[in-house]
């Protein structure tokens, strides 16, 4: 998969099948769109092309708190690569770009560079200034410019439409296992391991604190999770606590991981992917450290049983 971040670097494309979107999460609904792009492109012997944006348009257009993201741009590209697209264009999204009208975006960028004969987009995708570029707008544009458009309906599981919004809600509530099902991949994120206060080591459960690579990363609900860490191609299993460590009267939110049978000294200042397999309990204030240690041993035993499902 070729990735382009500037328009002038893209070679001449005589024919393509194109999709456009932010694709935050690259969830199962997004994957259906991408699979259709790939299959149509193969039939037409054209290039399969995905156009996305970085940063997320809402981070530029919305005032106030930033939308929590399901993934860093590099994670997005990793998943897109696994779906075997030919090309991805990552457009730097800023205020100036946001003022481009939908028709001008299609004419001056998409048609001019990619010469698409076929567009495939999701049922609720909008693009262009003030979100003018609806699916119906794209269909009308296509009729005037001689290419085809396919609008993909939502992927549903029973009565739930799979969407980035719904997946965010699940993760915020701690339902990471369900979120991973809707994503089509185990929810997690790349992190940097840092030194903490050493509290876990004094309890017999040494932990590594970690911070997400994506500064606007969506974080699961506070609590204790069974996790899988990935570092240099190696899988590490363990548990993590997201919260404020109330037993010790602390108030700062921390993310700390304990990997079973693993020397944490080798992890500091390293990049690690932390995947949240299942949430096992709420964060709780214990009457004393000894009660906490008893619970941590129970958590460890539970996680060791869960690990067998994921190995």
Describe the overall structure.
This protein has helices at 28-44, 57-61, 73-82, 95-98, 102-114, 135-145, 164-172, 176-183, 199-202, 289-310; strands spanning 2-4, 16-20, 47-54, 87-92, 116-122, 148-152, 156-157, 160-161, 188-194, 208-212, 223-231, 234-243, 254-259, 271-281. By secondary structure, the chain is α/β, with parallel strands linked by helices. The chain folds into two domains: 2-161, Rossmann fold; 187-310, Elongation Factor Tu (Ef-tu), domain 3. It has a six-stranded parallel β-sheet, with helices on both faces. Strand 11 and strand 12 (234-243) form a beta hairpin. The longest helix is centred in the C-terminal third of the chain and has 22 residues, at 289-310.
Question: Could you provide a short overview of the structure?
Answer:
The protein is an alpha/beta fold and 311 residues long. It has ten helices and 14 strands.
Strand content: 25-35%
Count of DSSP strands: 14
CATH class of the largest domain: Alpha Beta
Q: Please write the string of helix (H) and strand (E) elements.
A: EEHEHHEHHEHEEEHHEHEEEEEH
Question: What general form does the structure show?
Answer: elongated
- Classify the fold: give the CATH topology of the largest domain: Rossmann fold
For the record, the count of structural domains works out to: 2
Average pLDDT rating: 92
Looking at this protein, list some descriptive labels.
311 residues, alpha/beta, Rossmann fold, 2 domains, six-stranded parallel β-sheet, six-stranded antiparallel beta barrel, 10 helices, 28% strand, elongated
């Amino acid at each position: 998969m070729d990735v382009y971040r500037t328009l002038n670097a893209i070679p001449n494309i005589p024919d393509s099948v194109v999709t456009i979107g932010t694709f935050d999460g690259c969830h199962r609904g997004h994957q259906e769109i991408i699979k259709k792009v790939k299959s149509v492109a193969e039939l037409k012997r054209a290039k399969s092309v995905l156009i996305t944006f970085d940063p997320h348009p809402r981070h530029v257009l919305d005032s106030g708190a930033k939308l929590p993201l399901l993934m860093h741009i590099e994670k997005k590209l990793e998943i897109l690569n696994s779906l075997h697209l030919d090309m991805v264009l990552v457009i730097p999204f800023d205020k100036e770009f946001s003022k481009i009208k939908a028709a001008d975006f299609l004419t001056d960028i998409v048609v001019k560079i990619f010469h698409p004969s076929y567009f495939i987009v999701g049922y609720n995708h909008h693009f262009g200034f003030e979100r003018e570029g609806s699916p119906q707008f794209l269909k009308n544009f296509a009729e005037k410019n001689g290419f085809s458009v396919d609008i993909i309906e939502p992927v549903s599981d029973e009565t739930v439409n799979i969407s980035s919004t719904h997946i965010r809600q699940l993760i915020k509530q701690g339902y990471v296992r369900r979120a991973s099902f809707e994503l089509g991949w185990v929810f997690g994120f790349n992190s940097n391991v840092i030194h903490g206060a050493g509290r876990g080591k004094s309890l017999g459960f040494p932990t590594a604190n970690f911070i997400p690579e994506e500064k606007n990363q969506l974080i699961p609900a506070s609590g204790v999770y069974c996790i899988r860490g990935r570092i240099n191609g190696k899988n590490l299993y363990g548990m993590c606590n997201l919260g404020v460590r109330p037993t010790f009267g602390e108030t700062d939110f921390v993310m700390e991981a304990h990997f079973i049978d693993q020397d944490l000294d080798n992890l500091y200042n390293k990049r690690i992917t932390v995947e949240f397999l299942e949430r096992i309990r709420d964060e709780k204030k214990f009457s004393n450290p000894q009660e906490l240690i008893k619970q941590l041993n129970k958590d460890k035993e539970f996680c060791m049983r869960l690990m067998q499902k994921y190995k």
